[in-house]
Structures are given as structure tokens and as C-alpha cells.
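Complex record, two chains
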Amino acid sequence: MDIMLAVAPIVIPALGAAVYALAGWRRATTSVATVSAALSLLAAALVAGRVVANGPLSVAGLLRVDAVGAFMLLVITAIAVLVAVATPAHLAAELDARRISIRTATWHATLVQAFLAAMALAVTAADLGVLWVALEATTIITAFLVGQRRTRAAVEAAWKYVVICSSGIALALLGIVVLGHASAHSATGAGLDWAALAGAAPQLDPGVTRIAVVLLIVGFGTKAGLAPLHAWLPDAHSQAPAPVSALMSGVLLSVAFYAVLRVKVIADGALGAGFARALLIAAALASLLVAASLLIAQRDYKRMLAYSSIEHMGLLALGAAAGGPLATAAVLLHVLGHGLAKSVLFLGAGRILQTTGTSRIDGVRGLATRQPALAGAVGAGVLALLGLPPFSLFASELGIVRAGFAAGIGWATAAATALVVVIGAALVTHTGRMLLGTAPEGPGAAPAPRPLPRCTATALIIGIVGCAVLGTTTGPLTVLLEHAAATLGGTP
Amino acid sequence: MVEVLNIAAGALLLTAVLVLWRREIAVIVRVFALQGVALAGLVAVLAWDEGSAELAAVAAGLLVLRGGVLPWLLRRAIAGAAPGQRESRPVLNVAASLLAAAALTLLALAVSAPLVALSPSPAARAVPIAVAVVLIGFLVLVTRRHAVSQLVGFLLMDNGITAAGFLTTSGIGLLVEVGVALDVLLVVLVLQVLTGRMRETFGDTDLDELRELHD
């Protein structure tokens, strides 16, 4: 029973992919993705219950779900539900506009299911090698989704995405090889199993482990969109279709960051807390600086959201650098809150792009008067990203900042806070211009108001309400977060 | 035994430097295939040394994948290019490239010192060479403006990492090894398809054309 539960979040979307590959995208199969996501979410919730009650679930030494993995499964499946609900309207609009064919829609649905299965495998793998294979598989699967529109820009984005992510993550593979070398000579028999490695960390050769940790953090950090190897992110996220951007920004980045969190536990055990902390602070401040400097004069709203994702990954890195139970719980809560808010925003941005035909910020005016529901959701999403109450990012950002000061990295936390304020101001200015004011008249103006499709509206509302509810109470998630923080936050 | 191992490792580094030196893409692909053979030879030597049938099978698999399938895919990717587009125009000239390769090899020696110190076996002593191949591959990746030669840079990195894996701990587990090989094969396939689309939309595979997206 436990074993079936643990593999369900991988197997269900894999079956969904098979259904779409065989039956294609048609009226009868539009709800397969929603059913698959809902069943996976149910399985993830049951897994989380089991993990809290009985400790980690293990499957044949290959998969292991502990509290952190169970939490990540919840994040993946919850956002998969949002995206699955909104996808039929998105694809229908693309098909109506003849931008894609039925064949492309079939590819889209199949690859998205495979993408979800690969992410679920990544967070349940017991072995760093399997985790690597699953993460690299996500790059390959999403490459065609990024390049789906086949325009010059889409092909360019797909090429950069595959080349930068694959070579960045190749560094992580070298790191795994080096860590395997240290592990093989430590006589602990840990291999590449991350739980065993975390336990055996004090016996690992520090010189070799140091090389491995640098490679692993830079490598997995590339995939998580952390500077300096973040260049693929704004291109890929702005060119991918909206539901895919929502998954890439809301979940994929965090899944890669999950790998960084696992590495940090091993690094802390082998080298003390200072080494990984220094690397993560550097990555965090560099990412925030990149996001701030490129957001101020940003002209494209999808790229604006992409840079905001770099900002939030930087905040996660800062929280991970602080370490300790408070920071770790805040980091994980931030992953969920950011995932919900960012997928709402990317889904909303996709709808804006479909109705206005432009992704330029100055091409969209007076959205609030023409499409009030959409404008309301986007506005609320941006307020959530800024970390305003009642949204959960308020609680998690506060937690990260408090933990940063408590951990003695006050200077870095202060610098990060200043950058977050700059980024917030830029986001407010850009979105304000899009939502407020009067709509432009004459040629090139936005077409007549179009009602928001019911399923898109549902997804946007669930996301916003979910993010707000999490900000007031984490409810049953509290225990899971405590367990997860205990697993990751061994060293204060 | 040690001599054969050193010859194979030397061939690995030599082919990497040759890729950096030559500009003609057809030649680069041929050199890359040679490197695949050298890598398979290196693993075969280790298999012989340890009397391991599993490693021998891995060596055979590497020979097929990196000496045969991947170069064949690369040749297919350049087959459609017009004659004028079969040369790569590197950002660095030959002399600077070779100097950089020398510097990167020294860097690899310095960086991998702790790895060698941990287990000074003949195989582990060759690890710096594998790391040098990774670094040279990275240099090819960032200094070449042609899609296929960039792809070769990525594959050089991967050959270096695979070599490092076998020289340190006889690989990273058969399951993961197969997964990695599959991932690399798929990356090449994806990039081959993208090269075709690039030719469709840009009429060229020169990456200088990729400047639609920027801030």
C-alpha cells in the first residue's frame, strides 16, 4: 500500500502521458490531465499523512519519500491541478487562432504529463544519480514545449535553454562523480544515497567534498535559475506557452532548488555550516542583483515575471544559507506560496497575451476596465509576489529575513531586503501601467472586452485564495513542515 | 597496464585539444568520434584490469554510443548545411585557444589534487586529464558560434565526466550510467531537431543569428 502510494505521483502522470500519446487531444481527453493531477494530489496528501505518522516511505532502495519529498510532491501536484484546469481554455484559444494544430496540442498534453512524472521522480529519488537523471529528463521533455511556437524567438529560447541547462547540470554530474569518489573511500558504503551520505558526511574527505559541493550547487543552481548561470530563464519562460511557463516557474525551479537543499545537508555535515552558506549567499545576492537591475527597465511582462522568479530563487537561497528549522520551514512555505502566485500570474499573462496579442508592457493599457476579472487576479498575484499580507509569501519572507538576522548573516539579509524593495517598486510600476489607466483607442488597441473562460477563472481564483489561506494558517501542513525542517535543518 | 591506461587518457586529452584547434566541422566530428573510441578503450582497460564483465559491457556500449551513434547524429545535423556554413568561426583565434587549453589543463591538475591524494591509484592519477577534457569542452562550448560545434563542446564535457566517473569509482552505478547515457543521447536528438528548425527559420545555424531575445 505504502509502495503504491509512493509511486502513484510518478505513475499516474506517466499513464496520462500514454493516454494523450495514444488518443490525442480531443474533447473526450481534455479532462484526463485534471483527473490525473487531482488523483496525484490525493496520493501526495496520503503520502504526506503516512510520512508524518510512520516516517519515510522507502521503495526498493531506489525511491524514498521523507517529509521534504512529501511536501515537494504536494507542491508539484497542487500546481499541476491549477495548470490542468486552465490548460483546455488556453489550448482552445490557440487552436481557434490557428497558432497551433491538433497535433501540437497532443504533443503539449503528452509532454506536460511526462514533465510532471519526471519532477515527481526527482523529489522521490533516494539516489543523487537518479535525481540527476530525472532533472535532466525535465530539460529534454520541456525543450519542445519551450520551442512550441516555432518562431525565431521560440527556437532561440529552446536552443539556449537546452544548451545552458544541460551543460550547467553536467557540472552537477561531475560533482556527483566526485562525491561518489569521496563516498567510496569513506568505508561507509553510502554510495550516492543522499540519506546515507548525510549520515556519513563527517567521514567524507573534506578536500574532495568541497570540490563536489561547489560543482553540485553551481550545477543544480543553474537549473534553479540562480545567477550566474540564469541566462536561459527569461528567454525560456517568456517563450514557453503559458501553462508550461507556470509549471517551469512555479515548480521546476523549486524542484531543482530541492536538490540544492539535499546537497547542503551533506555539505554541512562534511564541512561545517560555513562553506555552503558562503556559496548560497553569493548566489542569492547575485540573483537578486540581476533581477533588480533587469526589472527596472523591463518592457516585456512575461520576462518581468521570469526575472521575478530569479528574485524568489535568490530569496530561497538566502533562506537556505541562514539554515536552521525556522528558515527551512519558511523556505519550503515560500516554495509553495511562490508556486501558487507565479502560476496564477503566468496563466493570467498567457490570457493577456491571447487577448491583446502583445507581450509588451506598453502594449497593454487599462486592463482593469476591459477585463476586470483577469486584471483582479493579476493584481492580486503581484501583491502576493510582493509579500504583502494576507498572502503566504508575507509569512515566509518574514521568516527568511528573521532567520537571516538570527543566523548572523545580517549584512547579506539587509542587502537582500533592499534589493527586494527595489524589485517590488519595479513590479508595481510595470503592473500598474498595465492594469490602470484608459485603454488605448484606434488601430492596435486592445479588442473588445472578452469574458474570462470559466476554467481559467477557476484556476486563477483557486491559486489566489490558496495563497491567501496559507498566509493565515498552514493548517495540517504545519506538522509536515516541522518534520521537513527537522530533516533538513540539522545545523542551525 | 598502466602504459595502456595512460595512452588512452592521453588520447582523450589530445582529441579534445584537436577539436579546439580545428575549424572545419566535419573534421571536428571525426575527431570527436576518435575521442569516443579512446574513452571506450579507457574503460576496456579498466575492465581488463578488474576482470569485470559488467565494465566490459559498458565499454562496448560506450564504443557504440560515443564512437558511432553520436558522431552519426552530428554528421546528419551538418549534412543539410550549405558548403559555406561548414566552418566554425570561433571567438578566440587558434593561438589563444591553445594557450587557454594549456592553462585549463594546469587548472585541472591543481583542482583535482585532493581527488588524487585520496586514492593514489594509477586510475585516479589520470583523473586530472578527464577534468581537463571537461574544461576544454566548456571552452569549446562558449567560444564557438556554430550550432554543431557548440554541441560537440557539450559532448566533450560529457566524455570528460564519464571518464572521471570510471577513473575514480568505476562508474556511478549501472542504472544511473544508463540513465545518463540516455539523457545525453536525447539531448543530442533534441538539439539536432532544433538545428533543423533553426535552418528552417533562420536559414543558417550560425548562433550569431540568435539575438532576438535580450534585455
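Note: Chain B touches chain A through 49 residues (CB under 8 Å).
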